[in-house]
Amino acid sequence: MDCEFSEFSYGYASIREAESVLAEIYRSLKAPVLPSLLQEEKLGWDAHLSFVEYALFFQFKRAQFISRRHPKSHTWVHVNKRHYRFSIDTDGHQHRALLRLQERLQTNGAGDVYYAAPIFHRQAEFDRHYAFGQVLHRSALVPPGEFGEGDGRHSYVTTEDGNSRVLSDPRPPRFRVSWDGIVGRAADRAGNAGQQQDRQRVSLGALEEAMLESAWQMGRGRERDVDAPPLRRIHRLAAQLDCGLVLFTLADER
Prior knowledge:
Blueprint: H1 7-26, H2 37-43, E1 50-60, E2 64-66, H3 76-79, E3 83-89, H4 93-108, E4 111-118, H5 123-131, E5 139-142, E6 153-159, E7 164-167, H6 179-192, E8 202-203, H7 204-217, H8 230-240, E9 244-251
Parallel strand pairs: 1-4
Antiparallel strand pairs: 1-8, 1-9, 2-3, 3-6, 4-5, 6-7
C-alpha cells in the first residue's frame, strides 16, 4: 500500500524539522561571509571565505506499507509482520553517486548522507508527527554504505516497532541510525569545534566540488555555474542529486 502523502510533502517536513532541531545546536555560529562575483573573480575560490560546519543530505524514499493483505510480497515471507519497505539499486548511478558523496564527507568530517523513508503511511499519522516534531523520529534513516555497491537491488524493511532488516539476503543493518543519534553526534561535533583548532576545515568550494563529482556520476554535468552565488549553486546541486540539504557554515576569522 502506498503512502497517502507525497514524497515531496514528506521531504519538506523532514528538512524543516531537521533545520529547526540542528539550528538550536549551531545557533552560536556566525553568519557566512560570501564573496561577491567581483571578489570571486579577483580572489579565486581558494580565498575560502566560508567553511562548512555541517552538511546533512537526505535522499527521500516513499516507503510501501506491507501487511497480511500482501502475502505474496517478496518481503512478507522474511518478516511475517506489518512493515515498511523501500528498495535501492546498488548498480544504479544515483546510489553510486551518493556513496561517493558519503565517502568524501566522512573523510573530512563535513557531514552525512542518508536515505530517509517514513515508518507511517496514513495522512493522519503524518499530520500528527509533523505537529509534534516527530517525523524524523518515525523515519528509517540509512547511510548509502549500508547497501554496498554493484550487487543488485536490495530492500530495506522496518517493522512498526522499529526493527529493520536488509533483504534479499536477510541480515540486520550494519549501521544503527536514529534521528536522536544524528542530533547527538552533531551536538558533539559543535561542542568540540573550539577544541579542534587543527582539524581539517572544509570550504564551501570543497563541498561543491564533491557534489559536482557525484552529479557527474549521475550524468548531470560537471560545470560550475559561476553566475550564481556559492550557496545557491550548492542547493541547486543538491536538487540535481535528488537530495534535501540542511547546511550550516562558519565564517573564516583570518
